[in-house]
């Protein structure tokens, strides 16, 4: 089974190699590594690993924490499709542009951000397009609309419905065009980082521009 392991590690040469060695000694295979952000002497890494059926999940945490200075921020099952060229594939698909762009974004953004769902909302909070796993936004008050800029929407915010808060639904959002908003989310954490929000804003900005181009 695959798991997504988010680590906070000292930002020094060889640290990822040390983590890889520790996991290898425990018989755990690394499938992919994404460096989310660096600064203040630390780095935040998302590592997708494959755990054999005879291995216990606690072994993941035990293995990586044998490396001095490494902390586990979160660990959760990973059931998404793994694609090391996720953003390039999305940009290539966006080149088609047109009215299908919202549906394309909601289908592809969960893969880009290792998250569970994505929706495009209109100015009134109505869902224009959404992935299959997206929660129901009908009847949910969204005090942050209209969204003036990119925003992290943590699960502990006051507006978050109790049922979402119980599931620790973490979200981030960014404007899409002049009146729409893209929201992506994951249940059970980890919370989105500002580096992820910047990537989302960049991709959605490209999508907004492409959607306004005349068909070729």
UniProtKB/TrEMBL annotation:
Coiled-coil annotated residue ranges, if any: none
Q: Could you tell me which Gene3D superfamilies the record lists for this protein?
A: 3.30.70.260
Pfam families for the chain? ACT
Domain named ACT is located at 4-80
Name this protein carries in UniProt: ACT domain-containing protein
> Which species is this UniProt entry from?
Klenkia sesuvii
């Amino acid at each position: 089974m695959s798991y997504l392991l988010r680590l906070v590690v000292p930002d020094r040469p060889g640290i990822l190699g040390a983590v890889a060695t520790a996991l290898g000694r425990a018989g755990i295979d690394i499938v992919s590594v994404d460096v989310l952000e660096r600064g203040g002497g630390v780095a935040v890494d998302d590592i997708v690993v494959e755990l054999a059926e005879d291995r216990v999940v606690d072994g993941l945490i035990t293995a990586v924490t044998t490396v001095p200075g490494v902390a586990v921020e979160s660990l959760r099952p990973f059931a998404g499709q793994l694609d090391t060229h996720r953003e390039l594939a999305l940009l290539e698909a966006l080149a088609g542009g047109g009215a299908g762009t919202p549906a394309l974004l909601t289908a592809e953004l969960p893969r880009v951000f290792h998250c569970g769902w994505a929706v495009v909302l209109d100015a009134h909070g109505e869902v224009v397009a959404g992935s299959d796993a997206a929660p129901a936004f009908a009847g949910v008050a969204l005090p942050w609309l209209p969204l003036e800029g990119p925003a992290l929407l943590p699960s502990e915010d006051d507006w978050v419905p109790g049922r979402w808060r119980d599931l620790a639904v973490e979200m981030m959002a960014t404007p899409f065009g002049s009146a729409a908003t893209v929201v992506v989310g994951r249940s059970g954490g980890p919370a989105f980082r500002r580096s992820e929000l910047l990537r989302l804003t960049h991709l959605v900005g490209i999508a907004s521009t492409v959607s306004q181009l005349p068909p070729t």
